[in-house]
Every structure is written in structure tokens, then in C-alpha cells.
């Protein structure tokens, strides 16, 4: 039986094969139709998660494919939006998003995001602040940073840490801006 991706070892966890195959079929259908409002967009691909199953698809292979798929959808969305509102307006919107990201990154260490309660767990502020400095270098000085690095960053958990949803929203905005300027 042919499979789309290599499988993890029988005793190791991987992504649920059926879920991945259903998602890929939906993505193929969405990409090949000329629907102006597709059911799947780059942001949805970025937020996709699959159940874990022993012997499922290799997570590294599926994640790499999802990144390529997100890039393809983002390029198509960019083309559609430029055709709709014009290149000048589209770049103005991208600059505005980048400006919002930079404003957040310029906040002082330990104050970039709101915190969860001391009983709750969030992202470790030191980890986030360190990565925020790298993001700042990318935006202000053009220092190299790949989409893969942004997409795959992992922060340690910490009681009283930064609110995860806010950090994740910023990272999503960074990915959107990086895809926009490709």
C-alpha cells in the first residue's frame, strides 16, 4: 500500500494517517478550484493540528509539507489580493502589519505581553524576549531569519509566564509579513 509520507516506527507516535489524508484532499480541492473564497487559507494551514497515533505519519515530513502548502496558498492569496486592491495598497497593508509587530517587539523585556496568573502556565518570558530580539534584528536590520525558525520556535513553560495566545498571534503576524515580502 502506497502512502503519502513515511510512517513513524510502529511503537512511535506520528500524525493520524486518515486525518492527514483528508486534510490534504481538502487542500488539493481548495487549491485547484478558482473559488474566490476558498475553504482553506494559509492561516488555516498554519493552525492545523492532527491527532497522534502509533505508527502514524512522520511528523517531520508532514510538517515540512504543510509549510510548503502554506507558502503556496499564501502566494495565491497575495496574487488575488493584489489583483483586487492593487499592489500599492497591498504593500501598505503589509507595512502596517510589520509596523505593529515592530512596536510590540520594542517593548521592554518582561513587558512585551500580558502574563497569566502565577497559578497558570504561559511561555517563559526570557525565551520569548530572546527570540523577540532576533525578530527585531530581522525587521530593523535585515538580519537573516527563516520562516522555518519562526514556525518551529518552542518556548519553555513557566508559571506566570507570557500569555500564549498573544505570543502565538504575534508569531502568526510575523509569518504573514515574511510571506508577504517573499
TrEMBL record:
InterPro entries: CHP03543 (IPR019932), DivIVA_domain (IPR019933). This is DivIVA domain-containing protein. It comes from Curtobacterium pusillum.
